[in-house]
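FORM 7B - TANDEM STRUCTURE REPORT

SECTION 1: FIRST PROTEIN
SEQUENCE AND TOKENS:
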Amino acid sequence: MSAHAPGGPDDRTTIVEPLIFDKSRPGHRAAAIEAPGVQTASATELLSGTALRQRPPTLPELAEPEVVRHYTRLSHMNHAVDLGFYPLGSCTMKYNPKVNDELASLPGFTRLHPYQAEEDVQGTLELMWELEQALLAVTGMCRASLQPAAGAHGELVGILMVRAYHRDHGGADRDTVIVPDSAHGTNLATANMAGYRVVELPSSDRGLVDLTTLAEALSERTAAVMLTNPNTLGLFEDDILEITRLAHEAGALVYYDGANLNAIMGKARPGDMGMDVVHMNLHKTFSTPHGGGGPGAGPVAVCARLEPYLPTPLVAQRVTPDPGADEPGGARFHLVYDHPSSIGRVRGFYGNVGVLVRAYAYMVRLGGNGLLRASEDAVLNANYLRVRLRDAYDVPYDRMCMHEFVASASRQKHTAGVTARDIAKRLLDFGIHSPTVYFPLNVPEAIMIEPTETESRDTLDSFVDAMLQIDHETRHEPTIVLEAPHVTPVRRPDETLAAREPVLRWRPQAVRLQAVHTAERT
């Protein structure tokens, strides 16, 4: 079955693949060939004395080639960064070099066991140590933990260290965290999870932190200010030094959400801005394909006064003084657990080491100049798209942005009732993943666009062409947009129903039909 998108690319078609249960036919299965001369035991014999099923499980019956082809066809239905463009603001979805995956797959890394002796894992510990030093050079901080499993996890670790610091320095009554409305939503959730009351700070008319509003919100009860810089509007905080000065004068610490670090690495460092604690999304900024919940890594770097509170263990370097040692005068690496003020372990063992390997390979391969170029290209690409789209779409903050910018579908909604969601759905017909929509919340009908540094001008121009065609359709044939997507395997499901009554298992057709009829009656 196939269908062409009205007004869209002619070569995009819908491929419908039945459920594997629907493809099942009795007796279709792979051949099981026993090894000659080997005595086998039945399942009943192997499981003697234990509870057994009264009847065999209802599993699909297919030959091996049918199974392989089925799942391969399903994989082709998924959009992926290796297939098409992801202009996904708020979450960097860029192409990552395959050599980094290859390096992370080396047996020396994949076959490690977390309980191996330190003497047997010196290479991995050295890599972790050098990665930490590289991250500190990029951020301008003092020390870092590589344990946290993701950005939100890193946020929580950072705020727990803030809480521990205030507890030890007479600030136990500091129960409030200030979060600008341009911050990532996880900031508010993280502060709340750590037991703080959250005060949301409205942005100025320029989309930035208003110094007067910040000064009024700060008090002797403020524990921290959580900032994203550049913020989720893609704007750099012009008054960042004054922001951190005001916070520190009030006795508060300043937390830096490093999700947008890819816009400034090599150009500006959070430590030089006055930040006290920084998390980094290695799986966004420093090369790991991510999505679907993982894998990730969110190292947390701190200034000197928060260093005692870092999670344990930490990787440390020591110099071998014994000339007769295996590595005379050379560096050896070990794990430090003796950290009395530490907030404790926050992750099983040492973190997602595979992600750390990829990040290390990425940073070593690019070097300082390469990281700087990546930031410059990300900013250039975002501004190119902003200028090319601003005549068709409202851009509330239409000035030089960083790695991303926020457009709005307010004009299209007013003209024909076409929303940001409709535009996002229509983009799927062009083989382009939707940008983030309806975030940040302070822009109506927000479309948050981040092209990343890895896309060519041809790709960017194709995205612009699609967006301009959608605008044209909005004004002349809005039904095409309102009913999109037209060529995807799944079109417009009832998302509320899917969330509240998800179908998580297959049932025989008769049972499924009965459920449908019951739903229709109710």
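SECTION 2: SECOND PROTEIN
SEQUENCE AND TOKENS:
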Amino acid sequence: MIRLAKYLKPYLAMILLAIVLLFVQANADLALPDYLSRIVNNGIQRNGVENAVPTAIRASRMDRLGLFLTADEQARVLKAYTRVDATSPDYAQTLLTVPGAAKEPIYTLNAVGADEIAWLNPVLAKALLAISGLEQAMADPAKAAQMGAAGGFDLSKLPAGTDLFALLGRLPAAQRGQISAAMQVQFAALGDKAVEQAAVAVVKNEYVALGMDTGRVQTNYILRTGLLMLLITLLSVACAVAVGYLSARTAAGVARDLRRLVFRKVESFSSTELDRFSTASLITRSTNDITQIQMLVIMMMRMMFYAPIMGVGGTLRAINKDSSMWWIIAVAVAMLISLVVVVFSLALPKFTIMQKLIDRLNLVMRENLSGMMVIRAFNMQSFEQGRFDQANVDLTKTNLFVNRVMAAMFPTMMLIMNGTSLLIIWIGSHQVAQARMQVGDMMAFMQYAMQIVFSFLMMSFMFIIIPRASVSGGRIAEVLETETAIRDPQTPARFPEPFRGVVEFRDVSFRYPGADENVLCGINFTAQPGQTTAIIGSTGSGKSTIVNLIPRFFDVTEGQILIDGVDIRDVTQHDLREKIGYIPQRSVLFSGTIESNLRYANADASQEVIDQAAEIAQVSEFIDSNTAGLGLEISQGGANVSGGQKQRLSIARALVKRAPIYIFDDSFSALDFKTDAALRHALKANAAASALLIVTQRVSTILNAEQIVVLDEGEVVGIGAHAELMETCETYREIALSQLSLEELS
């Protein structure tokens, strides 16, 4: 897969934008549990009172707070508040929300920052609890005696109606400090969170004393926090949609580029490379394998970057909520990692096998479809069904194994997730009972734990997709990185003008890649323009190999092929093939119309050229006999025309090109003798300036050829006209007499 990373470069901007959006989405998702915690802790349990810093407090209450504050603390607290009485300019506005301001002056909280609130919160929480504790002590003699003993005097023995706080104000600082120190010991035993939570109840009582609508305070807090959660959720959804769009665009673009590159690469393959990769394998690589890469890119952009952010961020936020339960997350993560490693080790080898089995299935299917008539003719349907079933069963077994592993993996992950939730509730409930944790914090911790586990679940999806996509990526890279055996020269030569079309074989030898022996040895002959050069020989003598060397489907092993004195390896393949009209041994038509097939050789050909080519190829009668004419639809592979019609249409297509060199590779084999003779006569008359190279098995086809090259086991055993070869070449005479009588040959 790394070998294909360079093809992501055009989409780097979209990938980076997607990562930024994923970071925003992850932070938005991670913020939601914290807001839920606030709703539960502050909105429900604290009636909307967020902390121990009251937004409004009676002046008498503020004076009492000063008894338990240092001079510096008292100055900073008073600086954070504004005194409001009947003479204040905003007195009337304050009365609307704080009716108690009509009875006595109050202090209202200024617009201070979060840092100042964080400082005020513990200071005021302890002072408020101290005041509340003293008030309760005055109502409870036992508690008064306990507090008095701690402070050095018994509060329960004070005369009735004594102003305790006025008395405290007159006490020596040392004695007042003893009372504060005793309270600080109790506060330390409770812990900061418990102190803050207890102080919130005091703040709520203060709001009640001021006549404030505490229900409205609670409702406003829940609605405000809920609205923030909704906005954050919408932001997360927007980011998710944008990332989905970007990932889909990137994946589709990468798949499109890879398909285009693979197709272009395969188009540049010589026969050597095409023999290395089977057709079925190339089709699988262009479709199934690229689809795997497309899926991987989507999943990478949507999960691979998102999951780590969620995992790390969730861990940090969960520990921040309660560091004592970190081990629960550690256990869950360790179990998930172990599960993923086991699944990865089991599934990875199977993915490599799976792609090869898909190749095999495609191969069997392709052979069955292309050879259906032969299969039926030999009554081999049962054998082919068995062959297909075997390939299908092998693929199915591998798929089932992988699916069973996946089927066991996901329930196990759900078990881990549910077990983690249960453990958090079990441990967290004890923490809540001991006032070490709030209910909202426990709920948030559980959600963070689920987000962490879910991030590993997403990464497990990646571990499932990556191995298969890695195999597919390697197969695609193998095609793209294959060096073609036939390449254009860096500084190509040009054919001389005017171009004549003299084809010369000079000491040409050739062996197929990987073969031990040459199939052609020391071939020497020249094909002149205006003449017919025929190549004949027994089966396997190398006839088709010779003509396949001219368009450079293969390159010669030794020697040279010259056209107009220029080595064909010194010109570009385009320039070379532009001069050649090629009719292959196996006629190939493309889906479309007759006209589109004929124009395949020259899209700009005039109607006159097309009609003339059809006339020469003896296919005009067939075209005219159809009501659609040249518009007759040709089915895939030319299945709706006969072999002879297909061969004549292939010849007509080459003639539309009006090339100076024509190569007929046994292209008259499907024609009857009458059509063969008529076609050769028309060809001789209308392509008189071109060099004609004809590979044939029929002696009757080449009786009038100016030059006949006779091959036997890859060597030239005779060159000359028909009459001359009948006298001088035993091989040619044997071939001729095996087909025609002496009278016909004379």
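SECTION 3: OBSERVATIONS ON SECOND PROTEIN
The mean pLDDT is 83.
The first helix runs from residue 12 to 45.

SECTION 4: SIGNATURE
Preparer initials: ____
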